Amino acid sequence: MHVPDGFLDAPTSVATGAVAAAGVAIALRRARDELDDRTAPMAGLVAAFVFAGQMINFPVGAGTSGHLMGGALAAVLVGPWAAVLCISVVLLVQALFMADGGVTALGTNVTLLALVGAGVGWLVFRGLQAVLPRHLAMVAPAAAIGALASVPVAATVFTGLFAMGGVAPVEVGTVLTAMLGWHTLIGVGEALITGLVVGSIVAVRPDLVYGARRLLAARELEIRTPASTPEVTA
To answer: Can you tell me the distance from the alpha carbon of 87 to that of 97, in angstroms, rounded to the nearest whole number?
Structure first.
């Protein structure tokens, strides 16, 4: 879903840049509550995984390409604010060193992939946690659905931005159809990957998954007293 340079006009790009800057600034402050000795190393691994995953691009027409976003995956693993930082760093590196997305479109891409992707994925995930059984086995399915929802929502937001400031000679309806059609399919793939990754980590180290902490904290601790040893008499 990287938006290339010149696809949106200057006022729209400046506006999304301001939104992205504000979102990252808030994330820098709020992520302090999420990052600790467990999630800080995980954040680096998540950024590396998303960077590698975004190397697989799917052309969606109308001058854009789609790929795995990773926002929901990052939000569940390290928290929503830390996820914004992870995805933003990935996008910055791609824009500066790989010409993927473009520098002038960096604010737009951060808004779509980091803010919308991680935000929608996390909100859907937490909403499902509120209604699903409170079991660790439900973390991966909830994360997968959050990932599935985040991709077409981001595609819809992009279409709205294109309607306001798109410069390509393409009808808005054509862009919407292409974006939703392809990104719904991409969302299914992202949901599968997110569910598999989160499920694998929950199975072995649920304490490393930020989205599982509430469930772990709510568990009742079973305190077992050791069996008393028989009294030995002389």
So the answer is: 15
Which structure tokens are listed for 118?
Answer: 């991680």
DSSP designation for 209: -
The parent domain of residue 113 ranges over 10-208
Collapsing DSSP to helix, strand or coil, 66 comes out as: strand
What distance, in Å, lies between the first and last C-alpha atoms of the chain? 81
Least Cα distance to 210 among 69, 47, 28, 36 occurs for 36
Instruction: Tell me the chain's radius of gyration from C-alpha atoms.
Output: 21
| CATH number of the domain encompassing residue 86 | 1.10.1760.20
Q: How far apart are CA 110 and CA 116, in angstroms?
A: 8
What tokens were used for 17? 């840049």
Identify whether 229 is part of a domain: no
- Sign of the torsion formed by the C-alpha atoms of 9, 108, 90 and 70: negative
What CA–CA distance (Å, rounded) separates 229 from 234? 15
pLDDT tens-digit profile of 50-77? 998 877 765 545 555 556 789 999 999 9
* pTM listed for this prediction: 0.86
Count Cβ atoms below 10 Å from residue 184 Cβ, excluding itself.
Answer: 13
